[in-house]
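Retro notes, structure queue

What went well: the backlog is down to a handful. What didn't: a couple of records were mislabeled last round, so from now on we paste the full input next to the output in the thread. Example, using DUF2357 domain-containing protein from Fictibacillus marinisediminis:
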Amino acid sequence: MDTLSNLPFILEFNIGNKLPNRIVDFYSDENSVSEDTLLEITENVPVEVLFKSEHEDSKLFFEGLESIPERFVEEEDGIPYLAPAEYPIKIFKQESYPLIPGKYLLRVDCLSISYYTLVAVKPNRVTEEQWEIMKEEVEEQLSGLAQDLIKSRMGLVYKELKMLAPRQISQFLILQKHYAKALAAITDLYTKANYRIKKNYQMVPIERVKTTDEKSVIHRLKYPEKQTELKSPINTFEYDLPENRWAKKIAQFVIINLKEFNNLVTSYAENIKFEIDYELRPYAEFQENTRNVLIEKEKVLSKLEEYLIVTKKIQNAFQMLQSAKWYHEVNEHKPCPLPHVMQLDARYRVLYQMYREMKQEKPELGIDPIYALQWKRTDKLYEIWGFVQLVNAIKELEFNPINGWIYSGAFNQQKNLIPNLNGGTTITFRNEKLILKLTYDGKIPYQRQDTDPLSEPLYISSNNNRPDSRLDVYEEDIYIGSLIIDFKYRSKRSVWDLGIVNTSHKSKTMSQLLSYGSSCKSIHLYGANNGITHNNPIQEVWAIYPSQYNSNHPIEDYEDHHLRLIKLSPIHNKDYLKTAFQEVITKLISRRNK
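Corresponding output:
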């Protein structure tokens, strides 16, 4: 979109001792904000903002305002903003409330119109490459989740499919997806493949000549002595066309890959069968754990046998094509560019589309383009990156994701695209007795009548009701408590300062974290259905923040406030996150059993 002009407000940044910088480039759509015109602020330099407007309802929203002392900011639905003023307000002060390097989205609401622009805090101690690494890690992690998804689509537990490469699984799924249309195309091509009529000449007995042409006459005049024969034109069907060469090439490619997949699955099925017959079944009657493993292995074997049946059906279809009369007349070794017929003729198009998907270097699972837009906001990038780390840590604790986000059935209709991580998205994990529900950016109800024991077990009595993540824990389908997690893309001191926790100088961030730990309630804790309110369903609140430096002590506990500060950054080791999750779950179980 074009930039907005005739602004009904003034927005200036005073950076250090430099002259004021007035921002004049604003956009009406946050997704269209250009980085070419952003204002750059150097890290560790004091920054003041002057926001003036004749319209009292004007509001300036700026990521990081929650770190500013409460007396300077106002709130709308729990989100801090600056109101117009005749004097500048200090928003960047190194010793008290610094801004972490990154890109920050600014929004001004005035006269029912939203104006957007970007401000970049340039690092002088943290390299810009680290920001790129974080973005790359997110994309890599999403791709990794995509690979997990491909495997989960096969209907098997992830660890049971390690012997099959994602590419092999993806190719099988592609063949399975296109099978019905490909079979119809092959059936038609078997007898009705494209051909070209080619005129050849043969010496034919005079009494059997059906047609003559100019060449027949010339030949007769040239050889008048041949009175009993005549050179006659005979039309033949030529099948050695570019589209048929491509069809033959595709058939050979598919059969080779099917044989490879079939051999791998057959070998794996034989190993599973041996394990079932000789290592599990003899002891299953006496050992419960062995019996459970046997049940899972039998499911795996059944699924593998289904794959072999599907593989055989697809293989038979392409072998039928190879048995067509015209097939062996086609020269597969002759190089041939892709003809237009491969796109225009539906029969050839089906085969080529399937072939093209199979030939891709990676499985065809893209990432929703909205992610690229969110990379403009470093705080949002860190939030998504952090959420993916939570997912990975929970999976490492042997919890299997069974629903939500990419793991939901609805995803299968979304054309192989990793969907955007929308607010309110919940991923459900399960192990033997526990269910974990990890919610991203979900609202906690304000009233207990809006709660639900299985989806919304909490309600809250403070304005801060939208944590970045929330983990609800269930034991044997009974709700036993929650963990609240907020990602803070700022320095640790801006997140928590124990020296001012009980004073009026504490920041919005500190007040927010305290309210999460003290203001949440539940009428569903431990399966209660008598309407009694429990005031302590929250085991802990985690404030997760980044740092450029690695640390041997990345977790700080403030038990009096039910708070943990957790340092979490790209590149650095993250094993402690898994341990912290396990500790919270163990505490919740122990608390229930007291």
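Agreed that this is the format going forward. Reviewer comment attached to the example: Confidence is low (pLDDT under 50) at residues 155-160.
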